[in-house]
Amino acid sequence: MIKVTSSIDWNKWDNFVYSHPKGNIFQTSYMARVYELTQNYEPVSLAVVDQESNDIIAILQAVIVQQMGGVLSLFSSRSIIYGAPIFDEENENIEAVRTLMEHYEKLISNKVIYTEIRNMWDTWQIGSILDQSGYSFTDHFNALIDLNKPIDELWNQLKRDKKRGIKRSEELGITIETCQSKESIKIFYELVKETYNRAKVPLAPISFFEAAFEVLVPKQKALLLFAKDTSNNIIATQFALMYKDRIYAWYTGSREEFLKFHPGDALIWYLLKYGKEQGYKVFDFGGGGGPNKNENLREYKSRFGTEFPCYGRYEKTYSETRSRIASTGLKIYKRLI
User: Fold this and answer.
1) In angstroms, rounded to a whole number, what is the distance separating the alpha carbons of residues 140 and 137?
2) Domains along the chain?
3) Between the N and C ends of the chain, which has fewer C-beta atoms within 10 Å?
4) pTM (2 d.p.)
5) Phi and psi (nearest 5°) for 328?
6) In angstroms, rounded to a whole number, what is the distance separating the alpha carbons of residues 166 and 170?
7) CA 174 → CA 128, 266, 269, distances in Å?
């Protein structure tokens, strides 16, 4: 017999995720703690366990994100699932996923407008279960760089403009430094907020990044980088995550007046070298957008030698009315910033 529980033994949880071939940082108890410490974020942590052995069979870590508080949360809340659910594939416990998703749906459907599952691999094994649960699949690209090659080969696969940009940043004396002070999150946030405002997209609250720094950096699961000019001005930043064999380019930001110094190129090249030197096998460059949009994003990332597997996303809307109101609100937000 199996049961679904939200009272998960943290050691068993993290051991299950770490030993799973599809285990990722977003499904760990570390990220649950980050969500708990973030304003207007709520973790949803569920596990299917064997009632006799209490062993974990399947895991799902989601996060409810509210763009606005109070009554308006009904029109701005969504649930995001990164790289899950994962289940015991060795013993083919796929029905545990069905049980897990049924429990999740009962728990979440009245709290959010929609759920989005952001896949990190081919989900053919559980696709039919998600289809039957009312989820719709859409194509969406991931962006990955294989680090299983010599550093010279990583350099050679960069396009000419990226090589020029990296060399130019070196000539101008741009240096990359690792930050160990939580107080620096304020500077990091200013840079990222400036970048997101230019792109006219919402940004997570500063408490999210403060929590990530507090929880993940001491565990060597995250790295905060600053790019500085010769006057010691911080001109760009990168917050990277690290877990198992993967290093993630998570959030980045830069000052517009310093873009001509190519600090973004320098930061990515630093992470590629760091990842290679530390034995990571995959550089996760984040999403690559959908087939009919984000072409500029894919073009930029492709110039570092990025590949774009299409693992797609699943989405389920619980209220079409609230979804339309939220969409209208986002359009107004973009006009205001």
Assistant:
1) 9
2) 2-140+312-336 (3.40.630.30), 143-302 (3.40.630.30)
3) N
4) 0.92
5) -65, -40
6) 6
7) 50, 8, 13
